[in-house]
């Protein structure tokens, strides 16, 4: 693992580092590694993350468990918020509201989540997100409120 001083990186710099590490250091423990997430796009206020479904993601009905979509959304929206933060400032999710639209299949379907910041304030931030399948069909959409941690009050 890198000896990068993460506290010296802005949120955008950190997310770009995470994006680069996914391709060069696949053994770094994380929820992203566990689920096979790929950071496809990293911009100020916007993140795109994808993963391929697999049988391990199945719910009792045999489709992808809703928690996979919720985790994708929480990650994409939270990381989008993080891209707006200065060095030494973090966040945590205060609220996550997910609307499920249709089931996803467990057989290697690519799910892509996009998170976009709506508001980035000193103490809270809000974002919206959506998950699409590989046919461009909406699987779920969400909003979040994040608490900004650190920095000056």
Q: How many individual helices?
A: 3
Mean pLDDT across residues:
91
CATH evolutionary superfamily: Hotdog Thioesterase
Uncertain runs are none
CATH architecture: Roll
**Order of strands, widest sheet:** 1-2-4-5-6-3
How would you sum up the global shape? globular
Q: Please write the string of helix (H) and strand (E) elements.
A: HHEEHEEEE
Straight-line N-to-C gap: 33 Å
**How many beta-strand elements?**
6
Fold-level CATH name = Thiol Ester Dehydrase, Chain A
CA radius of gyration is: 15 Å
Number of structurally distinct domains: 1
- CATH class group: Alpha Beta
Describe, in plain words, how this protein is organized in 3D.
- It is an enzyme of class 3 (hydrolase).
- This is PaaI family thioesterase.
- The chain has helices spanning 11-24, 31-35, 66-82, and strands at residues 38-43, 46-52, 90-100, 110-120, 124-132, 138-149.
- 33% of the residues are buried.
- With 153 residues, it is an alpha+beta fold.
- Strand 4 (110-120) and strand 5 (124-132) form a beta hairpin.
- It contains three helices and six strands; from the N terminus they run ααββαββββ.
- The N and C termini lie far apart (33 Å).
- Helix content is 24%, strand content 37%.
- The protein has a six-stranded antiparallel sheet.
- The radius of gyration is 15 Å and the shape is globular.
- It has one domain: Thiol Ester Dehydrase, Chain A, CATH 3.10.129.
């Amino acid at each position: 693992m890198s000896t990068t001083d993460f506290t010296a990186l802005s949120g955008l710099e950190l997310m770009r580092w995470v994006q680069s590490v996914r391709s060069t250091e696949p053994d770094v423990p994380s929820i992203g590694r566990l689920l096979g997430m790929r950071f496809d796009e990293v911009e100020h206020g916007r993140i795109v993350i994808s993963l391929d479904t697999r049988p391990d993601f199945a719910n009792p009905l045999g489709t992808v468990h809703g928690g996979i979509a919720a985790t994708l959304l929480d990650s994409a929206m939270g990381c989008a918020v993080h891209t707006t933060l200065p060095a030494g400032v973090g966040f945590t999710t205060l609220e996550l509201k997910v609307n499920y639209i249709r089931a996803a299949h467990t057989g290697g379907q690519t799910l892509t989540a996009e998170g976009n910041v709506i508001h980035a304030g000193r103490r809270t931030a809000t974002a919206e997100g959506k998950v699409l399948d590989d046919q461009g069909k909406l699987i779920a959409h969400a909003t979040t409120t994040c608490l900004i941690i650190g920095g000056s009050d």
